[in-house]
Amino acid sequence: MSKISIITIVYNNIRDIEFTIQSVVKQTYRNVEYIIIDGLSTDGTLDVIKKYSEHIDLLISEKDNGIYDAMNKGLAKATGEYVLFLNSGDELYEATTLEKIFSGEEDADIYYGETKLVDEHRQILGDRRHKTPEHFNWRSFRYGMNICHQAIYIKRSLTVPYDTSYKLSADIDWVIKAAKKSSHIVNVNDYVAKYLVGGMSQKRHKQSLNERFTIFKKHYGTIPNLLNHGVIALRLLIFRLKHGKTRD
Fold first, then answer.
1. How far apart are the first and last CA of the chain?
2. Residue 227 lies in a domain
3. Per-residue pLDDT, 131
4. C-alpha span between 235 and 16 (Å, rounded)
5. Burial class, 212, CB count within 10 angstroms (exposed 0-12 / middle 13-18 / buried 19+)
6. 41, 12 in Cβ contact below 8 A?
7. Nearest Cα to 133, choosing from 113, 107, 109, 106?
8. Nearest CA-CA partner of 132 in 120, 118, 143
9. pTM of the predicted model over 0.85
10. Cβ neighbours for 28, distance < 8 A, ≥ 6 positions apart
11. How many domains is the chain partitioned into structurally?
12. Average pLDDT by stretches of 10, the chain with 248 residues
C-alpha cells in the first residue's frame, strides 16, 4: 500500500480550509501523510487547522516568499511515495478517491484524473474548459494545462523543487519536468478532485498567461509554441461563442 503525501498550502483562508481538511480526513485509504504549510495566518485559520491536529502529520506556520516557496517547504518534508498538492479550498472528490486510485496493482509514475469546478458555496459548476487527455505525457500541455494540479499524483522520486522565479504558473513547469522522467502514466478515468475557482492565477490572469508562454517556449520550442498558441486562441474563441464565458 503506497504512502501518499498530501500537502496543503494556506494563508488567511478561514472560509475554505476546513473543506479541504475534511476531504482528506474522511478518506477510506489510510496510508496518508498530511502536511499543512501555513503562511502565518492571522484570521483564525490556524484555530481551524488545530481542531484536526490528530489527523495532521506536520504543520508549519511561518512567513514564506510566495506560494511556490511554501510548496517547496512541504515537498522537502514529504516522505510518501507519491505527492499531491491540495491547496486550501480544493477537495478530494469523495471519500473513496484515494482508495480507487491506489488499491490496484499498477505501479505508475503518475496517476491523474478529472476535476469538477466548485464555487465558494461548494456548488459544482461543471468541468474545466481544458479537457483531460485520455493519454498524457510531457507534450500534452502544449495546448494548455489540461490536468488540474489537484488531480495529479506524482512519484516523489521524480519531482524537483518548484522554480520560484515563476509566481503563478510554476506548477505547469513542475508537472512537465516530472512527466519527462515518467515511463508509466495512468489515467484513472474518474473524478478525483474539486477545484475552487477564483484563485490567484485567475485574479492576475495576464501575468499567469505570460509565465505560461515562457514555460511552454522553454519546453516545446519557440516556433511550435507560437503555432500551439494559435490553436489555443482558436479553441478559446470557439468556446466563447458556444458558452459565452471561459473556464480554466
1. 33
2. yes
3. 81
4. 32
5. buried
6. yes
7. 113
8. 143
9. yes
10. 95, 96, 98, 99
11. 1
12. 96 97 97 98 97 98 96 98 97 98 89 95 89 92 87 98 95 96 96 86 72 89 66 60 58
Residues paired with 38 in a beta bridge: 10, 61
Q: What is the pLDDT of residue 243?
A: 66
The CATH number for 191's domain is 3.90.550.10
How buried is residue 143: exposed, middle or buried, by Cβ count under 10 Å (0-12/13-18/19+)?
A: middle
Amino acid, single-letter form, for residue 18: E
Tell me the C-alpha distance between 111 and 82, whole Å. 9
In 3D space, the residue among 148, 8, 150 whose CA is nearest the CA of residue 74 turns out to be 8
Tell me the three-class secondary structure of 95-145, residue by residue: CCHHHHHHCCCCCCCEEEEEEEEECCCCCEEEECCCCCCCCCCHHHHHHCC
Whether 248 is covered by a domain: the verdict is: no
